[in-house]
Every structure is written in structure tokens, then in C-alpha cells.
Amino acid sequence: TEYGSPDTLRLVDVDRPVPKEDEVLIRVHAASVNALDLHFMHGRPRLMRLMTGLRRPKEMRVGVDVAGQVESVGAKVTEFQPGDDVFGVARGAFAEYTCALESKIVMKPTGTSFEQAAAVPIAAVTALQGIRDTGRIQSGEKVLINGAGGGVGTFAVQLAKDAGAEVTAVTRTKNLEMVRAIGAHHVIDYTRDEFTRNGLRYDAIFDLGATHRLSDIRRALTKEGRWLLVGGANEAQWFRLIGDLLKAVAQSPFVNQKVKVVSGRARKEQLTVLKELLEAGTITAVIERTYPLSEAAEAMRYVEGGQVGGKVVVTVEA
User: CB neighbours (10 Å) of residue 103?
Assistant: First the structure.
């Protein structure tokens, strides 16, 4: 009911939601925590409050990634029926039941648990857009993933490797072996080494959190390299990022290096691609911790601490 820390979150009993004509009602088995959830919880950057509510959140439900079983369907829904196992995006996923648009969910991948499926949507869609759609990573290219140990980063490592790229993963010490295990060819411990100052150059830098300035990134890119940006970790980084983007636009006539922003908005066709990749074993969800629904606030607190390797999942008992 208010912006702030995980202390503002409350688990309460409310009426079961009723699906609209283009929605399905999902009995939630699992949901996962994203940086997006933290931004909505904090109401930061404050500019986003123009859409989410100036003084307090218009939408009080938390969570967007969901995996569960269809309970009922709206009048215009044709693709799903009660009993189907699905995953995708739905507002208010930290709950026993939630409603999702038919266009925002797909059938759960065969051989994938609800917990694994719930860890996929926003993080893997963001990685897919950055590596395939926006970045257009090609076989043989050298790609650096800054923030490779997080939810988006672990999927980006796997997708870049699948594209045939030579992947360098930048992460904290505790995640080095994990990113190697999922496919990174080289690893850099950012607590010890600075990738913008080691003399190496990359065809693409997939940057999670915008921790570096444009001038530093240019030094680590090839002459026609791409800087693929995914948001900022805090408000100060968001404002600095806006400044760098404006500077990049001004410099664009004089340099061949490109700066591109990755949106991370989930679409059905992307979820379908991810379903196929999961079934083929090309990608897998890295889950560090699970919490029961009653401890969802603690799950948010742990992710807020910035120490996660992979994803944190909230499970819902029947």
C-alpha cells in the first residue's frame, strides 16, 4: 500500500480474482523475483511514479513471473483450458491465484518444474532480446556480459554461447564457477579486475546495471562494437545512463560504435522460443534459493541485497 523497503509488504487474504474475457485464472505454483519488482516496490526511479502512482502504488500486488495451472478461462480464450500447466507474465504473481492475459502465457515446457519455469519469463526474455534481437550476436564474435551471475546474466551467457560467440562473463567471486558451468569461456572477477582497462576489446558488451560510463565502455569495444544496455541498478545510475545516452546520440555521426537499449518486454512469441530452448536443453534456469509465499518479503530482501547468483523463486503450496 506504500512505496519502500520489503518491510512494506503484507500477506493478506483477498477475494479470488475473476478473469476477464481475454484472461485465464492461474493457480500459482511458483513465481520469481526480478529487479523490476524491486523498482515497483521502491517506486524508483521516481519518474516511473507517473505511471505507477505518485504518492502510493496504484497496483498493490507484487510479482510478474508466474508458473502454475489454469483454473478457469475467460469467454474469448481459445488456446487454454482448465488443467493446463502454463508459465509467463501476470501482475500479482506472489499469490495463490492470479489472472494473466492469454497473450502473455504459454504452455509450461515438458520436463521443466514449476520452479524452473517461473524463473524464466522476464529474465530470459530480456536476455533473448539483448543477445538475439537487439544485439544480433553472431557466431565467432567476442561478447562480454557484465553482470553475468544474475538472473538475466545467466540466461545471456547461455544464449550467447548458443549463438556461437566467445563469451566472457563478469561477475562476483562466488559466481565464477557457476558461470563457467553454464558456458562462459572466460570469467572476470570484478572485485579484482576491471574489464575496461585490461586492453581487450569486444564486439558486444551486454551491460546489466550500467555500472560504467560511456567513455570506459568505448575503450573496451571494437571499432564497430555494440553497447547493449539493460537499465540501472539504482536511481543515480539511471540518471547517469540518460546522460550517456544523450551523449552517444550526439557522438553517433562520428563513431561506428553503437549504443542500444534492451527493453525486456515479454511477448508470446518470445516465450514460445524460450519454451523450445528449455525443452531442447539449450538453456536452463539457475535457481539459488526458494522461499515459501509466506516469506515473499524475505525473498525480496535477499534480492535487494545484490548477492544473488541466478534467480530467487517463491513457491506456493497447494
Answer: 16
Instruction: Compute and round to an integer the Cα radius of gyration of the chain.
Output: 20
Q: Extract the C-alpha cell encoding 272.
A: 514460445
Q: Write the CB contacts of 260 (distance below 8 Å, at least 6 apart in sequence).
A: 134, 135, 226, 227, 228, 229
- CA-CA distance, 141 to 163, in Å (whole number)? 9
Residues of the chain with pLDDT under 70: 232-240, 318
What is the crossing angle of helices 296-304 and 35-42, to 10°? 100
Looking at residue 161, its pLDDT comes to 98
Three-state DSSP at 153 gives helix
| Count of helices and strands (H, E) across the chain | 10, 13
The pTM (predicted TM-score) of the whole model is: 0.92
What separation in angstroms does the CA of 26 have from each of 14, 16, 18, 299? 15, 10, 10, 22
Residue corresponding to grid cell 520489503 = 6
65 residue type, one letter: D
